[in-house]
């Protein structure tokens, strides 16, 4: 999964490059076909106000930058889809998923998602379907992703608890319990990140719907699209801190390196009793696993 995350976070630089390429046309530094018409900040179906392009080499930066931006937007949604599919595979198809390296799953998810992302980017770039249709598709996909995410969280948490407190049967094995616990842990860590991503997408989609359905005056379209672009292009500035603060060790290390973090949050020494309690909990948990495993072996022999 690290393969997919590294790639999709890398597409953020693709988005910035696309914005840099498009910026001169949006600000009126470069005009299309000498019409002295600025690049529109919103879509239109009125052909009379559309900028007609006949000399494509002169607007190659505009076309390439726009395609890169659309590819980044589609990749953002695909990244969430890849995470949910990967956790689904880990939950239902492998009991030793974390123990054995299976890099082919990450590569397969990346190739499959990018195949769909590139096709979708090209279709919307050449306006085979409108922005309203794209918003409906993205909303439906995010709804499915969020629903699947919470279903997996509930399933893995319940499975881990059942393996801990119920009498085990012949199907019990230590790897299955560890995998269920690891799935539940990773999904719980991702709750805050998913919440931040969903808030960003909800606000961004709401802005586009307000502009596309003409719920606001036309002179607010530029401001709405500017705010939308800031949410889209700056979303890693919200997502990365959310991921960092989801892990206590990362949060503590970050606060420690802040100029005034050490004074506000002084480092507390762990008492010997805390260390002993932690070691005792680990020992009891490990003993419980092997007692359950031994019990299942005895049943299988009988």
UniProtKB/TrEMBL annotation:
Enumerate the InterPro entries for this protein. 7TM_GPCR_serpentine_rcpt_Sre (IPR004151), Nematode_rcpt-like (IPR053365)
Query: Sorted alphabetically, which Pfam families does this protein's record hold?
Result: Sre
Write down the membrane topology: Multi-pass membrane protein
Localization terms from the record: Membrane
- BP term (GO), one: sensory perception of chemical stimulus
- According to the record, the segments passing through the membrane are 6-32, 53-72, 78-95, 107-128, 134-153, 189-210, 222-247
Primary localization class, coarse: membrane
Q: Which UniProt keywords apply?
A: Membrane, Transmembrane, Transmembrane helix
Q: Name one GO cellular component term.
A: membrane
State the family named in the UniProt similarity comment for this chain.
Answer: Belongs to the nematode receptor-like protein sre family.
Put simply, this protein is called Serpentine receptor class gamma
Which lineage ranks, top first, belong to the organism behind this chain? Eukaryota, Metazoa, Ecdysozoa, Nematoda, Chromadorea
Q: What gene is behind this protein?
A: Cni-sre-43
